[in-house]
Amino acid sequence: MLLENNSQSVLDGFMIQFNKNSFGLAAAEPLQVQPLQPGASARTMLPMVLSQNMSAGPTNSLLQVAVKNNQQPVWYFTDKIVLHALFSEDGRMERGTFLETWRSLPDSNEVQKDFPGITITSVESTLDLLAASNMFFIAKRKNGNQDVLYLSAKVPRG
Predict the structure, then answer these.
(1) CA-to-CA distance for 31 and 45, rounded, in angstroms?
(2) Which CATH number applies to 2-81: 3.40.640.10, 2.60.40.1150, 3.40.50.300, 1.10.3720.10?
(3) What pLDDT, in 10s, does the model give residues 63-94?
(4) Does residue 5 contact residue 11 with C-beta atoms inside 8 Å?
(5) Which of 48, 52, 73, 149 has the fewest CB atoms within 10 Å around its CB?
(6) Is residue 158 scored above 80 in pLDDT?
(7) Which of 65, 81, 67 is nearest to 5 (CA)?
(8) CATH code for 87-152?
(9) Mean pLDDT, rounded, for 35-43
(10) Taking the first listed entry, what is the main subcellular location of this protein, grouped into a coarse class (predicted)?
């Protein structure tokens, strides 16, 4: 996280809070930022925990954030949660389970995504990169001259 001081005074006592959200993301510890001089900036890491403050209703990738310091009012903003950052290590599915689950879902849940302009020189190396982000290979089939990949991933949701 990058914080910048564009004011004319030193800022200190930074705090952060998240509203209830689809994945229960919350700060694992207080925000650690040294006092910021005017015109200065500071980077900090904020460890997060899951399933602490879950919201009801449909899944939403927006995170509502409030940041405060001792000298200013609360700053409110939203940020988009990058889904792949939440993929868990237990997202691998057996092929039979994947097919059974796939067939049980209504057609309205199906999503296809084309990535124009992306050239994959090696399906195997691409699958290795995806696996490093906890997105796991299930199957591959040909559709004309294109490879169609089936992958599984899991995100926490109560």
Answers:
(1) 8
(2) 2.60.40.1150
(3) 999 999 999 999 999 999 988 888 989 999 99
(4) yes
(5) 73
(6) no
(7) 67
(8) 3.30.310.10
(9) 97
(10) membrane
- The answer to pTM > 0.90 is no
Strands 26-27, 48-49: parallel, antiparallel or unpaired by DSSP?
antiparallel
Residue located via tokens 């954030």: 65
Residue the block writes with tokens 């919201």? 55
Residue 7 has pLDDT above 80, yes or no: yes
